[in-house]
Amino acid sequence: MKVVVIGGGAAGMVAAIMASRKGHQVVIVEKMRSLGRKLSITGKGRCNITNATEMENFIKNVPGNGKFLYSAFNQFTNQDAINFFNEIGVKTKVERGERIFPVSDSALEVIDKLKKELDRQKVRVIVDTKVEDIIVQETKNENNEIIQKVKAVKVETGIIECEKVILATGGKSYPTTGSTGDGYNFAEKLGHTIITPKPSLVPVEVYEKDIVQIQGVSLKNVGIKFLDGKKNVYEDFGEMLFTHYGVSGPTILSGSAHLLRVKNIEEKFKNRNISINIDLKPALTTEKLESRIQRDFEKYTKKQFKNSLGDLLPGKLINYIVEKSGIPEDKQTDQITREERRRLAELLKNLEFKVKKFRPIEEAIITAGGVSTKEINSSTMESKLVSGLFFAGEIIDVDAYTGGFNLQIAYSTAFVAANNL
Description:
This protein is an alpha+beta fold. 28% of the residues lie in helices and 27% in strands. The protein folds into 2 domains: 2-198 and 367-419, FAD/NAD(P)-binding domain (3-Layer(bba) Sandwich), CATH 3.50.50; 203-358, no CATH class.
């Protein structure tokens, strides 16, 4: 059977390999000059392949239509993914948060091994070529109903006849890697509903312009909370980064996926109802932190306040905190009052910023939204509207948190599509 896979990312490559292993004649068409462009930047270039947690936890980590993936996750599990990558020559290891990485810490190795397997499976790879259309023909089924059936794929250079198409073009995040939403146009033209694409796993901007003073400051082992008024939307512990516009880093990106689902979120941003509270010293209570500050002040007695915080804070953060504390920077430590110490401790435990908006979808790690899951058979990944049209990966209206879950979605849906051609 002739199969065209549109899109040469993680989902497209795995789908092509699996389809070829089933004996199909497979062609991948990729508009970029090389395969796996987005895969090359995942996990900061290290490629967080999947997660080692129990499969029952995967759906909990997919806030966007997780239940739709129940069958796919069962048909191709995280262990199946690990076995697959080991089999094609990628050795793996487990890190914090049960994240699975290649031993080489190289996303480029993962791409290289996938390409070699495509070659081994005799998959025809066409790069630097845009797909212009999916051609269908209308036929009648046994109930005399008119159905659309895949016939061919039109590319810039001509027509590729086929019986099946796997659409794996990704979403709209990181458009420089080729994810520009082309697949949505193809699917919509064939009658599919597109749930409006929105950024997920994305940095956020804040209203406080003075945050530019601490841009580039990276923090580990801090606590963060996103609040809707006084209601806790999300809390986490780990790494974050201050930027010229706001905040980023793993904890912030995960939090954004929760914020995305807050009702009337754009209106709440506008009204300054959404805040992020950062606990710079989560291991200490406010009282213990106050005692620690007092010890530091005694250690640096007679020194100016601004010169007494080196043991407590990163150097690049000190001036900002001094300014926010309201304590005169040149005040001697032995002159600082108990009330001022308390205020400083509370500031370090609860550094607050008002969230203004999400950064653009182009900066998001993944896209929330896409082809409606109601129009896709969850057991086969085949379109319910077009016979012979299958979907895999981020083009589907599913999205997960960080930690390897989104790549597992890519493999699982790719496997199911290829296995049900």
